[in-house]
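BUG-150 | component: ligand-complex export | severity: low

The export step for zinc ion jobs runs without errors, but we want the raw record kept on the ticket for reference. Input record follows.
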Amino acid sequence: MLRNALIAIALLFGSSTVFAAENCSVELQANDAMQFNVKEIEVSRSCTEFTINLKHTGQLAKNVMGHNVVIVKSSDMNAVNADGMKAGLDNNYVKPNDERVIAHADVIGGGETTSVSFDASKLSETESYTFFCSFPGHATLMNGRLKLVP
Ligand code: ZN
């Protein structure tokens, strides 16, 4: 009886936690065909911490078809991507301490997951933001808009 009550409480607590997290997090999937599953991510400006959970749904290794997600001002994407390529896999294809990078996740391979969080209040409503994969050659296909919403 007590055990059942505890399970009920755990379920209740678990579901409300998931609900709260849903508003300030998103699952982003990347696959072996060099694609993200969404073209736009909406970030509520009320999120002190917004989390992107990145999941590689493919099977290829990270040195062959690795994926990450990098958040930048749209106007910075090409330059950040070029510097990231030079930085190499050891640096997750992101130039160390690149001040143009708002947030980035590590490069992962097939079957792996990772996440990256950032403070939404750092984003401006008048700026255009892009999320992209900085693995060499991926950014052209693997990019989308990150939009701040009320
Ligand atoms: Zn990629």
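Assignee comment: Attached the raw record above. The longest strand covers residues 50-56.
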